[in-house]
Each structure stands twice: as C-alpha cells, then as structure tokens.
C-alpha cells in the first residue's frame, strides 16, 4: 500500500498469518431480502473455518448470550478445562454487507460524500447500524463454532479515507488481536473521508490493505458463485475462469481455460444497489494482492471446494476437478 497511509505505531507480527478470508455479502446473506442472513451458509462456513483454524476437534461455544425464549445464559463453564486448548491458526476474516448496509448507503448517497447534507448524515448512521448488526451476528456464529472471534469495525478502529483511498488504518489493533490468539472480524463500513466528508470502505479494499501489510500465505474470497466467469454465470454458456495470471503492470489475462477469440471480453455485472463495485472491485483488488506474490482463490462458499481453499490444500497444486478461480502473479 502507499507509504502515505497513516499507520498508528508498529504493525509487525512475530509470525506471518496463514490466511485472510473474505466472506462475500451475497454468500452469507439473502441479498434480495433486506437484512436477512443466510443462516445455513453461515453455519457451514463457520464449521469449515473451525476445521481449518483449530487443531482440536473438540470445541465449546463462546457465545454466552441469552438463549432465545428463556432467561438462561448459554454458558457451561465446566466445559472449559486445561485440556481444551484454542490452538487457532492465524487467520483474519473480512466480510461484505450483502443485504445489510447497501440499501441504506445507496438511498442516502453515503459513498458519494457530503456529510453536511442531513440525508447523508442520517444514511451514514443507518448504514453503520446495519453493517455492525451483521458483524455481530457473524462474530456470534463463529463463536458458537468455537472460534475466538472479535468484531473490529473500521470506523471505530480509526480507519479513514482521503478521496476514497485509505488514509489511516489502525493495523496494530488488528495485529495485537492476532498475537493475543483472537480472530479479527472486520467488515465493509461507512468511514470519514478527508476530501468528501464520508464514503463506503469496501471489504475488498480492506483485504488488499491487510494483505500488503500482514503478508498472508494465501487469500480466499468466498462468494455465492463458483468463481469468476467470462460473463454473468446465470447466462447460458457462461465459462468458469479457472486461472487468471496477473502481470507486473497490474493487467491480467485468462490462462485456463483457453477462451475463443484473443480479444474476447470478460463481462461483469454489478447489482444496482451495490455501492462497492461488486465483482469488478473484487477482481481488481484480488489482482493487486496477487501482484504481492500471494495466491488468491475465489470460490463458492459452503462447498467442498471452499474447504479445500481454506485449508491451504490447493497451494502449489490445484486439481482439475476443483471448481473455483485462482489468481496468481506471473512475470
């Protein structure tokens, strides 16, 4: 990332992290239903993350919230003994908003700035209420799966932008949480902007910034489709792009499969209410991460293919029957 970004204090880790995971908003929410979580997908994703992070098969829920319909707290302290160790691999999770936040942001124009306008200021508040609500529910789902997760909202942790580019980020707070044995869970957020007052900082941009500084072994984007296609995957004859090569200048080309026509255009669509750029932003940020020498896997969440990507099983050898997109740096 550019050297003019204000990083508070030293953000160095004693050991490199293993993986940064992006939970796509469309994969963990019902994107066409306002503020509705895809409980089934989120549950499977949480289970797969536990399998890849924690060495022990034994786990105890860390969500001690009140059990719905009762006055009891879901906590069994006797389950926590010296024999239960939380030997979690170093992961960082960043999630999108999906059906949370995008509606509020697009209706009020938060991404365009203008905090002096009452509608934008109200939209800023409404957007943050929505995305932090989702963040809490994701942290709770991970905690119920035995993952020591900690929600870290960018706005509250001092992230800000200037002209929609990251200007300040409290990375030491993230690294300190990692070193303390927690799994930080960040998210796309409404943040203050030095030039336009405010904007939306997308999860994909956050991941690129984290990858540049934390240098994970690999990055996984969990989405609602199997990967990157040459056109919207709902269209007939859409082709899954299995491998994309990124060059030094940031340009990229499809390596597998071979597309007919040298100038064949890859068509990407963006949902009308998506204020973060959708798949366009995802590919651009993934290409920037790959330029750092970090392999990026884009794969459908809650599948056997996503489990292989999360576990690191694909590093160096991607089997032909794996469904997903690998984005790699090539000279």
Describe the protein in words.
- With 331 residues, the protein is α/β, with parallel strands linked by helices.
- The chain has a single domain (6-59, 84-329), classed as Carbamate kinase.
- It contains eight helices and 14 strands.
- It has a nine-stranded mixed beta sheet with strand order 4-7-3-2-10-13-14-11-12, sandwiched between helices.
- A hairpin with a 2-residue loop joins strand 5 and strand 6.
- Helix 2 runs parallel beside helix 8 (304-311), helix 3 (102-108) runs antiparallel to helix 4 and helix 6 (203-214) runs parallel beside helix 7.
- The radius of gyration is 20 Å and the shape is globular.
- Belongs to the isopentenyl phosphate kinase family.
- This is Isopentenyl phosphate kinase.
The CATH level-2 architecture is identified as 3-Layer(aba) Sandwich
CATH fold label:
Carbamate kinase
| The named CATH superfamily | Acetylglutamate kinase-like
Envelope shape: globular
Instruction: State mean pLDDT (0 to 100 scale).
Output: 87
Q: What's the level 1 CATH class?
A: Alpha Beta
- Helical amount among residues, as a percent range? 25-40%
User: How many whole angstroms does the radius of gyration measure?
Assistant: 20 Å
* Class based on secondary structure composition and strand pairing: alpha/beta
Number of helices: 8
Low-confidence stretches: 268-277
Order of helices and strands: EEHHEHHEEEHEEEHEEEHEHE
DSSP strand (E) fraction?
Answer: 15-25%
Determine the N-to-C terminus distance: 20 Å
Strand order of the largest sheet: 4-7-3-2-10-13-14-11-12
Oligomer: single chain
The overall number of domains is 1
Largest sheet: 9 strands, mixed
Quantity of strands, as a count: 14
Keywords: ATP-binding, Isoprene biosynthesis, Kinase, Nucleotide-binding, Transferase
Family: Belongs to the isopentenyl phosphate kinase family.
Pfam families: AA_kinase
Protein name: Isopentenyl phosphate kinase
């Amino acid at each position: 990332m550019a050297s003019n970004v204000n990083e508070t204090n030293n953000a160095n880790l004693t050991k490199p992290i293993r993986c940064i995971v992006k939970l796509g908003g469309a994969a963990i929410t019902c994107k066409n239903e306002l503020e509705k979580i895809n409980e089934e997908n989120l549950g499977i994703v949480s289970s797969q993350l536990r399998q890849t992070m924690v060495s022990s098969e034994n786990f105890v829920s860390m969500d001690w919230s009140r059990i719905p319909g009762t006055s009891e707290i879901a906590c069994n302290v006797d389950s926590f003994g010296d024999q239960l160790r939380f030997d979690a691999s170093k992961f960082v999770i960043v999630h999108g908003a999906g059906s949370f936040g995008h509606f509020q942001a697009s209706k009020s124009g938060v991404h365009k700035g203008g905090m002096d306008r009452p509608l934008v200021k109200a939209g800023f508040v409404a957007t943050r209420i929505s995305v932090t609500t989702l963040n809490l529910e994701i942290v709770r789902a991970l905690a119920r799966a035995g993952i020591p997760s900690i929600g870290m909202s960018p706005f509250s942790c001092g992230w800000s932008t200037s002209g929609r580019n990251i200007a300040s980020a409290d990375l030491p707070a993230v690294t300190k949480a990692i070193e303390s044995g927690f799994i930080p869970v960040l998210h796309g957020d409404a943040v203050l902007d030095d030039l336009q007052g405010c904007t939306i900082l997308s999860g994909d941009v956050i991941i690129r910034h984290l990858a540049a500084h934390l240098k994970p072994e690999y990055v996984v984007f969990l989405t609602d489709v199997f990967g990157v296609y040459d056109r919207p995957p709902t269209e007939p004859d859409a082709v899954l792009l299995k491998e994309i090569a990124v060059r030094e200048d940031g340009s990229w080309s499809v390596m597998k499969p071979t597309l007919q026509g040298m100038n064949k255009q890859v068509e990407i669509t963006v949902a009308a209410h998506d204020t973060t750029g959708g798949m366009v932003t995802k590919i651009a940020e993934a290409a920037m991460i790959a330029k750092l020498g970090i392999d990026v896997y884009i794969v459908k969440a809650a599948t056997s293919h996503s489990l292989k990507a999360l576990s690191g099983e694909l590093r160096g050898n991607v089997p032909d029957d794996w469904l997903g997109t690998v984005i790699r740096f090539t000279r």
